[in-house]
Amino acid sequence: MKKSKHKILTLSVLMGSAAVIIHAANKFIATAAQLKEMLSISSKNFYNWRFGKVYYTKKGKGTPLLLIHDMLPGASGYEWNRIENELATEYTVYTVDLLGCGRSDKSGITYTNFLYVQLISDFVKDVIKEKTDMIASGMSCSFAIMSCLNEKEYLGKLMLVNPPSLKSLQKIPQKKEKLLKLALEIPVFGTLVYHMLVSYENTKNLFIEKMYYNPFHVPNDVIDAYYESAHKGGCYAKFMYASLIGNYMNISINHALASIDNCLYIVTGDENNSDFVIDEYTQINPAIEASKINKTKHFPHLEDPEHFLEQVSIFF
User: Fold this and answer.
1) Is the pTM of this model over 0.85?
2) Among 61, 76, 218, 273, which residue carries the largest CB count within 10 Å?
3) What distances in angstroms separate CA 126 from CA 49, 129, 132, 154, one per listed residue?
């Protein structure tokens, strides 16, 4: 009996010591990742939303144009830094860091499609306060489309940059995805796993293998910005990613896509194997127009901003 108690006590001490060491390592990793200070912050540029403070920038004069980034780990408004100044010569450009991303608050909550739809709707009504056109990237295209269904008065034209397939958006959290999300959200140990997933090498490899057509053209500043953003907020940075891999951001947008009468334009990289995605969208809404930008992949606005801006001028 005494031996059993001694083993339990020893195990408890070892586990406690390991937790303290890993917690210290997690704090060091998160702090070190932000040393380059790629994501500048102005204290005036926060929208005090009911679920947390949302960071945004405002540039230029003209018709309002809202830029909404993709939901990759480390995502932020930095995704648009190659084009937002040029756009600001013709538009009032609002670039937002969605809740749980970049410089916005990162809370320990489940991030859903409905949450972001409400955020976009409220931001347009409370901050912009007039009819707004949008450019959305990746997963955020689904948020933008659902927002158009809810806010017909406030939302105008919508450009979708490499939107997700409609089939992928119909995947709901199953037992496996729920367990993955739960495991990642475990204090200390889950944070360590998250830091391994969003390490600098993994972030770099993600862009080289999947985001850019030419792997030799991936800029260091983009990798640094995503790496920094993935660690802002300390242990709470992982909750958005946990919701993403758990499929909690998914929702079928087929009905919304068929119902909205906004002008829609899809822009893809010609190396992103997006033909079937364009077919999915145009079969439901034949009014959608689409174009491809040569020698680009997931981020044509980063990889070839000049030709991307040409598409913007054509559509808007």
Assistant:
1) yes
2) 76
3) 9, 6, 12, 11
